[in-house]
């Protein structure tokens, strides 16, 4: 396996999605979906591709953080890394000078995710397997050896994690077959970004219904009157039985969240996502308690910055849906920790994927979760957004509103060279043209 890492490149790749309000929400009205995009080269001529999701101007900072950490990978062989993956995770997250600007949060942690995603991609490619299959085929002992249990052992010990994975071995082969045939259930966010007009929403929702979608997320939180109108529209279109989800992207204070959602309760959302600050564990617990009698759960995670935060949310019964993110947490390693804790606390996982490359990445993690851990699809679904897949060499495959398991080796986040070239900031063709037209 050797494969010594001899080069780490990082690119600032941005897509001008804000021009059409794709991805817009109550806190991010002009998101340019972007990535700090990493390519690893080995002496054996292999490559690993990784990324972390960012928005426009923030990308510059994350690219810088990736550069600052990249020396920790140079000269390491893939074998060194995966033989002690926990140790390598710690090396990256505990660098004595760099950890001061985290630790395990913010730009430096997003950079850790980009680099480690590339390492996992390299590993899966060298094994000739899609990442989900690499994970499914690892033994429980190998899986736990990738996880850093520091700070979470009061909620989940290594031994308990091993027991959970061993218990879930029964029926694994059947579940893998089931996924290959049916795929993993998905919901769509692409019909109802906040900046879309009612007409656009109606058209996109009509198309989505015709394509077999039965779960829809709508952005809320800016103006109550607009929310009521949009939610009424979408509920009328999808009918009483389909699933409606709402997402406020951290817009409210705690009391405001409870009042606002009481007004939107007649539209029967299954969850309200990020009702308040993503760091406010007790606030989320209060909202959960107040909304439970209305049948509304609280979902969060896309900005829950590490396993320690998730631990406390779970301990405090502060969320009813765990939204893992393949780029916010420290790659597969830290996501494994959160999947294991969610399983122990019996809280369903519904991954976040609203960004560029996030659908490509996180599908692998949720497939692993179903096959090797949760064995449950009740109230579980993976987010899907219909943007920018054409820029990837192994784009997601959706059939009848389900993610079909990827077949190509790796972690599915290699971008086409032509796409990187055109969207490189600030001199790629797309940005140079926008600049010449005075549109940025
Ligand atoms: C700015 C982004 O599009 C967010 O709005 C998006 O990630 C969203 O919160 C989601 O849940 O998909
Ligand atoms: Mg969200």
Features:
binds 6-deoxy-L-galactonic acid; binds magnesium ion; globular; alpha/beta; 440 residues; 5-stranded parallel beta sheet; 17 helices
What does this structure look like?
It is a single chain. This protein is an alpha/beta fold and 440 residues long. It has a domain at 164-417: Enolase-like C-terminal domain (TIM Barrel, Alpha-Beta Barrel). The protein contains 17 helices and 12 strands. The protein has helices at 59-70, 78-83, 85-93, 106-127, 131-137, 140-144, 158-167, 172-182, 198-210, 224-238, 254-264, 281-291, 307-315, 331-345, 358-374, 417-423, 429-436, and strands spanning 5-14, 33-42, 47-55, 184-188, 215-219, 243-247, 271-273, 297-300, 321-322, 382-384, 397-399, 402-404. Strands 5-6-7-8-9 form a 5-stranded parallel sheet, with helices on one face. Strands 10-4-12-11 form a 4-stranded mixed sheet, with helices on both faces. A hairpin with a 4-residue loop joins strand 2 and strand 3 (47-55). Helix 8 (172-182) runs antiparallel to helix 15. The protein starts with a strand and ends with a helix. 52% of the residues are buried. The model has no long low-confidence stretch (mean pLDDT 98). 6-deoxy-L-galactonic acid is lined by residues 23, 25, 28, 31, 189, 247, 249, 302, 352, 354-355, 383.
